[in-house]
Each structure stands twice: as C-alpha cells, then as structure tokens.
Amino acid sequence: MPRLSRPPLVLALLLVLVIVIVLETCTSRPSEIVLASTTSTEDSGLFEAILPAFRRAHPDYRVRVIAVGSGEALRLAGRGDADVVLAHSPRAEQEFMAAGHGESRRRVMYNDFVIVGPADDPARVCGFLDAPSALACIAENGLLVISRGDDSGTHARERELWSAARVAPSGDWYREAGQGMGAVLMMASERRAYTLSDRGTYLSLRDRLALDVVVEGDPRLRNQYSVIVVRGASNAEGARAFADWMTGVGAQRLIGEFGVERLGQALFTPNAGIDE
User: What domains sit in the chain, N to C, each tagged with a CATH number?
Assistant: First the structure.
C-alpha cells in the first residue's frame, strides 16, 4: 500500500486550526462604518470628543470619518462610498432623499452661522441689521470676502444670503478658497477679510484668529445638522446603529456638553426628535 505524504489526522487538525484563526479574526476586527461629514464637525473637534463614547457603546463598529463639504458628502453617499452622512445643507439633503438615496433622515443638532471679520472691523460704518444687508454693504465697499467655494452647507447658505442681498459676488474683493471651514477662517484672519462661518468652528479656533463676530442673530443664520442613513449602504446595520446612537439620549447629552468646559459655552444644541 502506498504511504500518504501527510497523515489524514494532521490535515484535519491543520484545517481546524485555520478555521479557528479565521473565525477569531472575523469576530475581533470591528466592522467599519464610513461616515461622510462636514469639515465643521471635524474642525470643531466634535468627533474627537464623542466618537470614543460610540466605540464603547458599540465595540463591534469603528467609524471612519471622511470630512468634506456637505455637497461632496452627499455625492459620496449617492455613489455608494459612504454608509451614513452628517450634513448641514437642508435643501441638498431634501433633494438627496427625494432622489431615493437616503433610507432615513433625522435631526441631530444645530448651531448658527456668523459673519466674522477683522477685529478693527472696517465695515462697522454699515450699521448691520441683518446678514443680507451686511453682505450688500461689504460688497458695496469692496471689502475682501473669502468664501468656502466648495459646495458645502456653509457655501450653500452663503449663496442664499447673497441672493437675498441681490448681489452677484465677483471681482478682486471676492475670493473662493475651495477649502474647509478651519482653513478659510485662518485665511480670512491672515488677510483681514470677512467670511461666513459656523459658530462652532469659529469658537474652537477663536484664540488663533484676529477675527470678531460682526453679524449674528439673524434667523436666516440658523444651522441645522441631520444624520442620514444611506439606502443600500455597504454597512447598513452599522449606519443605522450610528444614526440611532447620535439621536439617542447619551450622544445628545455629550453634544450639549461639548465646548462648555473648554470654551465656556456649548458649540451645538442637540435637537433630535424635534420635527422640521
């Protein structure tokens, strides 16, 4: 009888060992959730503050954040490159849902936009009453404005305000950076320019900026953030878990506390469960 090169028992043991290793690897490696979000949530430090709590609550998941403007975040999700979106561009979000790309959309939090400018504020002579009037006056005086110019939620709101001001911004006084909020604030500070910013990012960077708030409180400056679970997401279960957690009591409490200790005020107001 011919001898076997490997005893059947040894082969069986090797097969069992391989299966055990594969199973252990699969069960120990967290499932990745791809979150497309805005640069404002990243630049403000919100994710750094709250994502460890999500990981503790859901150790089977790991969140990978892609920080871009809201428009790009929604485009990524529409192409299937993200599982869940956190955005602050209501009109674009509604279009995303109407096109059938979103499984669910829920409010998470809000803050507001502010117009910031040089600390000595050359536009103070305008006597601002509202955001469109402020922009019209800044344009009329040819004062430098730096725009996000990146199809973000902030950029979308800025375009709405220019439209309300009946101004089509162009010329040497108006520059589109194509950058995130933090980068644009730094550019505005260095060049003594005006820009529209979400309050959270401005406050988180305020100590490094030579910029003051020159317009605030206009109802048109409210800045709502929503979480969207992408329809047909690669990790649909993880996306739903993240959205549920963001709108749950624990995360809402963390959001409401974020910024209080370091800056003396909350950067966002949680409002999950409140109808639009």
Answer: 27-110+223-270 (3.40.190.10), 112-221 (3.40.190.10)
